[in-house]
Amino acid sequence: MNWLLIVYAGVIGACIGSFLNVCIYRWPAEQSVLRPRSRCPQCENSIAWYDNLPILSWIILRARCRYCGAPIAAQYPMVELVCAVVWAAAAARFGFSITALHSATFLTILLGIAMTDAREMVIPDQFTLGGTVLGLGFAAFPGGLAFLTALIGAVSAYAFFWAGKWAAEDPGLLRSPGDK
Fold first, then answer.
1. Can you tell me the distance from the alpha carbon of 124 to that of 132, in angstroms, rounded to the nearest whole number?
2. Which of 2, 21, 38, 157 is deepest in the core (most CB within 10 A)?
3. β-strand partners of 71
């Protein structure tokens, strides 16, 4: 087992988890994930790079903002830690491969969807549509799912969920003629 690769993948995963937290908080509010920089939601001071190290900064700062002392949610290090474990596990299982990247990316997107849905009861299109594009991109590489199969699966899933949404939005559609 290549321990250096696994550790490196874990560090990369923690960094991706840090960015995933930004997506989880900002996409449902229809805010940019690029600007402004990360900031304290209480005092709105920008967070310096050394206070934005995945997992470590939360521990060093004792889960508090350096400037105002407001608490920092435990969600931040938890998402970073889960992503670190996912990326390290993918590297351990599949080595340095497109399959490892595909697996880690897929599970990271699922984590983002789960966290956003749990917090806001919404799944941003950036996760679903972006995930679809990434999934189809991964299908273009040899050794995995055939691209046409992946495309049919994506279109079928979209049609299924769109039909469910359409049915839920039309209250008369699901009633029997005798229902009031």
1. 13
2. 21
3. 64
Give the separation between CA 105 and CA 119, rounded to whole angstroms.
21
- Cα-Cα end-to-end distance for the chain: 65
Q: What is the rounded distance in angstroms from the CA atom of residue 10 to the CA atom of residue 178? A: 58
Q: CA-CA distance, 57 to 16, in Å (whole number)?
A: 15
Instruction: Report yes or no: 43 and 70 within 8 Å, Cβ to Cβ.
Output: yes
**Mean pLDDT along residues 71-93:** 97
Backbone dihedral angles phi then psi of residue 113, each to the nearest 5 degrees: -65, -45
pTM score, whole prediction: 0.84
Which token pair is 127?
Answer: 């996760």
Closest CA to 139 of 124, 157, 156, 152: 152
CA count, 13 A, side-chain hemisphere, 131: 20
Rounded to whole angstroms, the Cα distance separating 18 from 76 reads 7
- Taking only the tens place, the pLDDT of each residue in 16-68 is 999 999 999 999 999 999 999 999 989 999 999 999 999 999 999 999 999 99
Residues 35 and 12 sit within 8 Å (Cβ to Cβ):
no
Q: Which residues contact 26 (CB under 8 A, 6 or more apart)?
A: 32, 33
